[in-house]
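batch job 7 of whatever, protein = Integral membrane protein
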Amino acid sequence: MIGVMRQLPPRLIARYSSGLAAVLLTGLVGFQIALAVGAPWGRAAYGGATERPTARMRVSSAVASVIWALIAVVTLNRGGHRVPSVVPGRAVPVVMWIAVGLLAVGSVLNVITPSRLERMIWAPVTLVLLVSTTATELAARRRH
C-alpha cells in the first residue's frame, strides 16, 4: 500500500487525503455543534458519562467545533484546494502537525474510552483522520 502511494503524485495524495479529512471533520464539527446545543448524544462523547451533556461539556463542544472547523479549512488549504486562508502561510505546517498531535491523542482516548458507543463511532473516525491529515502534510511537503 505504501509503495503504491509513493508512486502517486504528491499533489493527488494531498488533494484526496485532505478531502477525506475535511468530510470527516465536517461530521465531527456537526456532532460537536449538536452536543453544544444540548443533543442527548452524551453516551457517544466524553467517556459516555452522561446522556445529556453538562454545561461544561456543551461549552467544550462549542469550542471544539470552532477548532475542528478551522483545522478542516487549513487541511483543505494544505491539500491544494481553493479555500480561504485562515492562518498565515508559514503557520500552515505547524497547524497541521498540531492537528496530527490532537488526533493521535484523540485516537488513543477513543480506543480506551469506557463508552462502547464512543469506541465504535469515534475510534475509527479519529484513526482515519489521523492517517489522512498525516498523509496530507507529508504529501504537501513532498510537493513543495
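notes: Residues 116-143 form the longest helix (28 residues).
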